[in-house]
Specification:
Elements: H1 7-16, E1 19-27, E2 33-39, H2 43-49, E3 51-54, E4 68-73, E5 79-80, E6 89-98, H3 109-122, E7 127-139, H4 163-175, E8 180-185, E9 191-196, E10 199-200, H5 201-221, E11 225-227, E12 241-249, E13 252-253, H6 266-286, H7 292-295, E14 308-309, E15 317-318, E16 332-334, H8 343-359, H9 377-382, H10 392-400, H11 403-429, H12 434-440
Parallel strand pairs: 1-6, 14-15
Antiparallel strand pairs: 1-2, 3-4, 4-6, 5-6, 7-9, 7-10, 7-11, 7-12, 8-9, 12-13, 12-16, 15-16
């Protein structure tokens, strides 16, 4: 594992590499990157005292009468932006947000993830490892979703016209210290995936934000548009963020058992049960947009039914097959989140749900290996199979009742997020869509 950079390391690199500008990054409650730039002359002061800013215009941040906030850069997240000129180089760092009196700010979603990781340690674990698979689309412009290719799963030239874009993206990610496992064309036309190598939860949430910035920046430099919108094309698969997860203690995988037929420990089984029990109430966090629920419909490889299995790719939670000698790789794959979520909040609620399962020893149901999409309704009822929410408003209503989500996110973010999502739903339901015009206007 690479040594984490310190303030002294960063100041030295900035001088040696002639870094002139440093972008300070943080995200709002919806996961949108916010950034302001300082010069290298301000860097030492930023480390010591932070940089003050007005938080009243940031979504989900402070109200006008309490708007002064302080951004303190985290030196361990420093990296040079490889697509910017080498002379007068530009770098970035993620920031932690504090109030003027030095207290962590309750609206900082990075802080919320840190709090949940502290809760994890109280339960006897020291590391929450994550390996998300983020899918996305390349389109010819940002106005309409005009596809660039007709490729499908694992296709190559001439059907995959995004391979050079992916190659450049991977090169930049690795230059920024973010290891990549593999990449490929996905199922839908113009859909792609780059898989990051697993990391601890906080590092991975930072990496996910960086990954999305790099994907979009490379596309923009090449004159195309990349989007993590969950369902941009009617009749095609949407984009998911399948997330592989495991808990560790002192370097040992707490999810592995060599005596269980599935090679899953009791902790792993309770964790899976926790995700399943609380899936409906955390869904508005892992799938936070109106458009997210256009993806979560039967028939397009996205999970809809709350079941788990090993070979079943229609399942909400899948357990990849164990390979002898690969105990550290034992993990669960949660398949319903999408890449448009705020990763700090999504990872927080997934962890909270899993830990609740461990804490309360939730029993795990039998795995389901049949295709649940085509299962008769009466069989699903017999197996007590529930569904994810079918719309954003249904998901919000589930979240509103959730003590688990409120505790995981804290009152500030919980209330702000519910308020924001209700506004989004109200705006959406007032729209008159092309579907309605084409379907009803000629006959009504």
């Amino acid at each position: 594992m690479a040594k984490k950079l310190t303030k002294e390391d960063v100041l030295k690199i900035v001088k040696e590499k002639n870094v002139r500008f440093i972008k300070l990054w943080f995200v709002d409650i919806l996961g949108a990157v916010k950034s302001f730039t300082i010069t290298r002359k301000e860097l030492e002061g930023a480390f010591k005292e932070g940089m003050g800013f007005d938080g009243s215009s940031i979504e989900g941040f402070a109200r006008i009468f309490e708007s002064d906030l302080v951004a303190v850069p985290d030196p361990s997240t420093f990296s040079i932006l490889p697509w910017r000129p080498k002379e007068d180089a530009v770098a970035k760092m993620f920031c932690d947000i504090f109030t003027p009196d030095g207290k962590p700010y309750d609206g900082d979603t990075r802080y919320i993830l840190k709090k949940n990781l502290e809760e994890m340690k109280k339960e006897g674990f020291d590391t929450f490892n994550l390996g998300p698979e983020l899918e996305y689309f390349y389109f010819r412009n940002d106005k309409i979703p005009e596809i660039m290719d007709e490729g499908g799963y694992f296709d190559f030239l001439p059907l995959d016209l995004g391979h050079d874009l992916r190659r450049q993206t991977i090169q930049y990610l690795e230059e920024m210290g973010i290891p990549v496992e593999y990449s490929h064309h996905e199922v839908a036309p113009s859909q792609h995936e780059i898989d990051l190598r697993y990391a601890d939860a906080l590092s991975m949430a930072d990496n996910v934000i960086t990954y999305k910035v790099v994907v979009k920046s490379v596309a923009w430099l090449k004159g195309v548009y990349a989007t993590f919108m969950p369902k941009p094309l009617f009749g095609q698969n949407g984009s998911g963020m399948h997330t592989h997860m495991s808990l560790f203690l002192k370097g040992k995988n707490a999810f592995f058992s060599n005596t269980d037929s599935y090679n899953l420990s009791e902790n792993a089984k309770h964790f899976i049960a926790g995700i399943m029990v609380h899936a409906r109430e955390i869904c508005s966090i892992t799938n936070q947009w109106v458009n997210s629920y256009k993806r979560l419909v039967p028939g397009y490889e996205a999970p809809v039914y709350i079941v788990w299995g090993r070979k079943n790719r229609s399942a909400l939670v899948r357990v990849p097959m164990y390979k002898p000698g690969k105990e550290l790789a034992t993990r669960v794959e949660v398949r319903f989140p999408d890449p448009a979520c705020n990763p700090y909040l999504a990872f927080s609620v997934l962890l909270a749900a899993g830990l609740e399962g461990i804490r309360k020893k939730y029993p795990i149901p039998e795995p389901v290996e049949a295709d649940v999409y085509h299962m008769p309704d009466e069989e699903r009822e017999k197996l007590h199979i529930r569904m994810l929410p079918g719309s954003l408003i249904e998901a919000i209503q589930e979240t509103e009742k959730s003590t688990l989500v409120r505790k995981a996110l804290g009152d500030h973010i919980f209330n702000k997020l519910i308020e924001n999502k209700k506004i989004e739903w109200d705006r959406y339901r007032q729209q008159v869509t092309n579907y309605e015009i084409e379907k009803y206007f000629p006959i009504l």
